[in-house]
């Protein structure tokens, strides 16, 4: 007769599943309110996110951060559902294995600690405005991903070891071994790195295009100042304009890359599952590179513009 895990284990799995449902409901019903809250919090820490005081550029940065926050809530939604199911199945297997009660209690405890892993994504959302993307992820790693993810991974491999001993060496419980392999595969799918969805990439493409357009407009204003300068000051201004033209070209290349990523992502959604996962992982890396490049270009352009303004005002002072 198949035995069920402890009622408390079932309760905690259901509780995590419920939190995942709640996150999904909030994400579907109040996305603008979530973005508004994140945007206001980010504005309180402009130095962390490289806000430059130019509306179009700052809006592009804010859109990226708000989209990142929504993506992390979505990740929590998915991982909460997945881990709740995986932990329940793992504990169902453990309670029906012929193991000492002490070993069962240890395995139950280790697997249930894995239920805390998804809350790292919520932590990222909450501290993202104050610490930035990298800082928020490091905190989540420190307090959730590494400790609880590591403990959960340890429990899974201990369970694998017990199955190897019992199934391969003792030659029985073959059906349970298949169930264990299925759980490990399901766990790997849940733990798969989150990739940005198509809508997020399209928004990043639109924001990037606006950013490049704003930089081009700023360049034209700088060129107008340059034309009013005497030759002595133009000699100082020209290298800055040349460097800014290069930034514009790189910005347009990054935006074109985001457009290509969105087109490839739309295509791979229709492909078979294994091919899609590998491809989306590669596209996710390309997306992160393009986003990082645009942010770096914005900062470099801001510095060039400030330096050019200083040259122009110095000339006017003379």
Features:
2 domains, 87% helix, mainly alpha, elongated, single chain, 318 residues
Describe the protein.
The protein has 318 residues and is mainly alpha-helical. Helix 4 packs parallel to helix 6 and helix 5 runs antiparallel to helix 6. The longest helix has 51 residues. The mean pLDDT is 84.
Number of strands: 0
Q: Uncertain segments of ≥5 residues (pLDDT<50)?
A: none
Number of helices: 10
- The whole-number mean of residue pLDDT values reads 84
The rounded Rg comes to 26 Å
Rough outline: elongated
Tally of distinct domains: 2
Percent of residues in beta strands:
under 5%
> Which structural category fits the helices and strands?
mainly alpha
Helix content: over 70%
How far apart are the termini?
94 Å
H/E series: HHHHHHHHHH
Main sheet attributes: strand count, strand direction, barrel closure:
none
How would you summarize the topology of this molecule?
Layout: H1 7-29, H2 31-43, H3 46-49, H4 55-95, H5 101-113, H6 119-169, H7 174-191, H8 198-228, H9 231-268, H10 273-317
Helix pairs in contact: 1-4, 2-4, 2-6, 4-5, 4-6, 4-7, 4-8, 5-6, 6-7, 8-9, 8-10, 9-10
What's the quick description here?
The chain is mostly helical and 318 residues long. It is built from 10 helices and no strands. The longest helix is centred in the middle third of the chain and has 51 residues, at 119-169.
